[in-house]
Design a protein that fits this description.
- The complex is a heterodimer of chains A (115) and B (113).
- Helices cover 0% and strands 60% of the residues of chain A.
- Chain A is mainly beta.
- Chain A starts with a strand and ends with a strand.
- The model of chain A has no long low-confidence stretch (mean pLDDT 93).
- The radius of gyration of chain B is 13 Å and the shape is globular.
- The chains are: A mainly beta (115), B mainly beta (113).
- Chains A and B meet through β4, β5, β9 and β10 of A and β5 and β10 of B.
């Protein structure tokens, strides 16, 4: 079957660096996305990795290792506004989707940035 | 325009009511999605439309009925809902074939009494 695991909560200090891990188990894997969602808000796309390696977008970077079925989101120079939930989302060949590449969200990591 | 809009923002309905949720995007996206999100949980996919045709129904009960009148609009018709259907309903869109990068609307907070 399919599974996605993320830590439920992470706390980090303003200005520091934090890494949010995501491990997945799936068949027909295509790639891993990351989304940010503030309380009461909508998910916002952050990044997508289809190949192994690191993708950098400003203060945020995302890494993927397909052989280890593992990825992470790295947030640098943390700011208070980064306090939010972060979801990894796996894109795979869904079981009952007739070949459609399906996206499934992980359980989410609530990041709290403290002064 | 990179915005997905949803109406209404909040909806309270009784179990015998019929209501509709609306979603609109003007980004030229040909894939549109409905998700249900409970508090402190991830979004759960309900339906996917591709080029205005339903391509995925995640075994959603028939009391939820989606409709895609044109490439910019997506509706979700609600009828005879249960209290456990209370949740945030999110609409999203993406380029066809790029479902890894979805743009979400602000959602409709639904309460079923």
């Amino acid at each position: 079957g399919q599974s996605l695991e993320q830590p439920s909560e992470v706390t980090a200090v303003e200005g520091a660096i934090v890494q949010i891990n995501c491990t997945y188990q799936t068949s027909g894997f295509y790639g891993l996305s990351w989304y940010q969602q503030h309380d009461g808000g909508a998910p916002t796309f952050l990044s997508y990795n289809a190949l192994d390696g690191l993708e950098e977008t400003g203060r945020f970077s995302s890494f993927l290792s397909r052989s280890d079925s593992y990825g992470y989101l790295l947030l640098q120079e943390l700011q208070m506004k980064d306090s939010a939930s972060y979801f990894c989302a796996v894109r795979d060949r869904g079981r009952n989707s007739g070949g459609y590449q399906k996206v499934t969200f992980g359980t989410g990591t609530k990041l709290q940035v403290i002064p | 325009d990179t915005e997905v809009t949803q109406t209404p923002k909040h909806l309270v309905m009784g179990m015998t009511n019929k209501k509709s949720l609306k979603c609109e995007q003007h980004m030229g996206h040909r894939a549109m999605y409905w998700y249900k999100q409970k508090a402190k949980k991830p979004p759960e996919l309900m339906f996917v439309y591709s080029y205005e045709k339903l391509s995925i129904n995640e075994s959603v009960p028939s009391r939820f009925s989606p409709e895609c009148p044109n490439s910019s609009l997506l509706n979700l018709h609600l009828h005879a809902l249960q209290p456990e259907d209370s949740a945030l309903y999110l609409c999203a869109s993406s380029q066809e074939g790029q479902n890894y990068e979805q743009y979400f609307g602000p959602g409709t907070r639904l309460t079923v009494t």
